Structure formats: structure tokens, C-alpha cells
Amino acid sequence: MVTPRIFFPRDFLHHRRRVAEIVAVLSRHGLGWLLDQLGFGTLAVRERGRLRAPRLDHRASGAVHLRMALEELGPTFIKIGQVLSTREDLLPAEYISELARLRDRVPPVPTEAVVQEIERTFGRPLADLFCEFDPEPLASASIGQVHAARLRIGTTVVVKVRKPGIAEAIEEDLAILAQLARVAQRRAPLAEYYDLVGLVDEFAWTIRAELDYRREGRNADKLREQFSGNPDIVIPRVIWERTAESVLTLKRIDGIPIDDVAALDRAGIDRPALAQRAARVVLDAILLHGFFHADPHPGNFAVLPDGRIVAYDFGMVGRLDSHTRDSLLEALVGVIRQEPDRVIDALIRLNIIRHESERAGLRRDLQHLIDRYYGMALGEYRLHEVVGDLLTIMRRRRLVLPTELMLVLKTLMMHEGVGRHLNRTFSPSPSPSHTSGASCSSDICLRTGSPGSPRRPTTASACSPSYPGASTGCSASSSTRTSR
């Protein structure tokens, strides 16, 4: 690979080799326009022709080359792409679809390096920590890899280990991105519409949180506690005596992959009922608790023989405060009651709309959206279509949703996909307890009407969960899916 000749402003001298690599990869994939949009078209490369260099594959689209470039640039940029794949308010559908294909699977590091990291972390030989440790990883991603093990007391566990040196490499990339954002905020055309520094800061916080496995352990504990009375969901227990910043140990719970329809049928699992139980769990987490698993792709969920759902991988979670939940519910009521001004008022409270001058154009767009779905029964809605139309409006109006709200929408859309895979007629919808629980500080909630009918606002009632206060235990099985 030929590296372009690059100007190095004082801001980037400490990272000149990595900056050169980033520019070279973008250039090879014909992504000079991205540097232009960020205000670095003339600053970065002396030979302008290199930014317009032929792509590696002329048949591939710009979205495909962006994905390929991010994969080539490594863990930090893969994570950027994964975060951007949730931001349909920022990118067109073609890019969202392509970035969603980003693969965070890379070859594992040698077992010796993993063992050294574990022993360095705990200051003890591996044999003192685990009586068995499988040298073959169950899974390997860009940041860490997972091994099966057994504690001396006999408990089977999974051990997630951060790859040596990965934190330092990511910190260098974050430092470069932070400086790029500060410079771009002053000169980039995009800066007129987007807070580039804020977006990078938010991303940096997210990826640093994923680097600290203690935080992931606390996320698992919090979800385990809030669902302690729910008979439908199992959260693996964290083994804190074997957990640190770079090592996470969880009780191993195997199950049937939630998207393996044939295996579920062989096990006698009622798939429509499973889809509804999963919907209750997701909506409980978002609307009652305001704390939810924000990466609900099929690989992160399995099903026990008794029908309970097992969740895995707690690195990405979402949080909603009562103000945001109430405003989200208010916007939903506005759509259902065909009141665009109510939706706009909710967006103003969420600080999405900052100027009254934006109201007229947005009201017109929302009215068109409402008209499109007018008269449809609740079960006929396709959530991903409605949300997609709404986000198209947001993107056209250059309105940016808060990250936590985008996580909610993405979580609901991903869950709808899983639900429809289990049951083609699946339609997620809140129960009265969800809506009253989400808006106890508000004077509105949605109550369930007759089957297939829209919900209508009424006065909020007492907050109560949608499941009885029964306890549940963590039972293992010999099925095919493994806690990672």
C-alpha cells in the first residue's frame, strides 16, 4: 500500500503514523469526499489525485467501501461504524444497511497471551483461578475473546478477556478523533448542522465503557436485579471474584439460539408465545425500568427448554430518565391521535427542535406521515417502516435525536425483527402497565383497546409491572447456545 504524502499540522504530530494510515485507507477506498466534508480535503493530502484514487472494487458502492475501510482500520473504527448503524437520523438507508453488516469477529490472539493477561490481572497462576480453562475460544471479537472454564467449586463459567494492547490502540485513535472533531467543528460544512465534538465525545464514552468489563458486569447485575421477579428472563450471574477491568467471568448458561426456529420447534417451544414474552421483557425494561439491553440481535439471546429467555453480552445498555420516557410517550400519543403539534411539543421538550421557525415545515412532514398510516389497526403497523419514515424526516430537517432515544428505537426495531422471525404475525405493543409505568409523572397514558385497535389516551393509573412477583433461578441446560 502506497501511503499518501501528508501535511502534519502541529495538532497531529504525535500521531503522524496512524493519521497517515487512516488517510491512506480512506484514499484507497475512494472516500476523499469524507475528508472534504470534515474540512480536511486540502489539509490532509498534498497529492489531491490520491484522494480520488480508483476504488479497489469499481462495482462496490460508496457505502460498501465505507464499511470495508472501517473494517480495515480496526477496532475503534469498527465500533464507530456499529454506532453509526444505529443512527438512521444521520445517514441514508443504504449506509445504515451496509454498516449493520460490520463484522466484529477477528482471529483470536494466542492462548498464551490470554493466560498472561489473566495472571497479570489477578496476580495469581491460572491454575489457582480455574480448575479447567479451554484454550480454544468460544468467540473472538476485536476487543476481547471468550473462553469456557470451570471454577474449583465446580461452577461452569465463561471468561471474557480483553486482548492485550487493545486499550492503548483505541486510546490513540480516540485522541486523533477528538482532535479531528475540534478542528472540523471550525471548518467543516457538516459543523453547521451537527455537534461533531459532542458526537465524538459520546462515542469515546461508549467505547471506553466497553473496554471496562467491570462496567459490563455492573450492567448485568442491574438487569438481573430489575428482572428478579420476572419468570420469563434469565441473566447470568457475574463471578466478581474472577472479574476485573480486563476480565469478566459469568456463570455459563446454554440455550437454543432464539433465531433457530427448527431447534425451537424440536424442543416444543411455542414460538408465538415466546415472541410475546420477549416483547414483554423488552418493553418492561424500556418503559418501566428505563434501563435496557441495547444490542438485542439474535446472537445475544437464547431459550431454555422451559421457555425462559437467556440474555448475553451486556456491554451496550440504554438508559431513559422519566422526562425522556414521558416525552417519548407523548410523541407516540400525538402520532396515534393524529396531532402533529403534540409530537412537535414533545420534540421541543427533548431539545430536538430548538427554533420555533422549524415548526411549520416539520408539522407538514408529520401530517404527511400520519396520513400515510391513518386508519391502520395497531397490528398492521410495521414498526421499522414507521420509524424509518420518521427518521427520514428528521434527517431531511437536519434534526438529531438524543442517543438514548435512538437506542430505544433501534432496540424496538431489532426486537420486532426477532419477533417476526418467530411469528410472522407478531406485533409488539405496550400493555397498560407499560404506559402507566412510563408516565407516572404525566397525566396521560395509553390503554389497550380492543384487539387490533389503536390505543387511546386516558388518565394514568398506578405503576405496576406486567408480570407477577415470582422469583426465578438460573438453570443450565445442554442445548446449543452458550453464554459468552
Automatic annotation (TrEMBL):
Pfam families: ABC1
Signal peptide, first to last residue: none
Keyword Kinase among record annotations: yes
Keyword Transferase listed: yes
Biased composition (Low complexity): 432-442, 469-484
Keywords associated with the record: Kinase, Transferase
GO MF term list: kinase activity
Region (Disordered): 423-484
Residue stretches making up the ABC1 atypical kinase-like domain: 101-344
Superkingdom, natural source: Bacteria
InterPro entries: ABC1_dom, Kinase-like_dom_sf, UbiB_kinase
Entry similarity comment: Belongs to the protein kinase superfamily. ADCK protein kinase family.
PANTHER family: CHAPERONE-ACTIVITY OF BC1 COMPLEX CABC1 -RELATED (PTHR10566), PROTEIN ACTIVITY OF BC1 COMPLEX KINASE 7, CHLOROPLASTIC (PTHR10566:SF113)
Protein name: AarF/ABC1/UbiB kinase family protein
Organism: Thermalbibacter longus
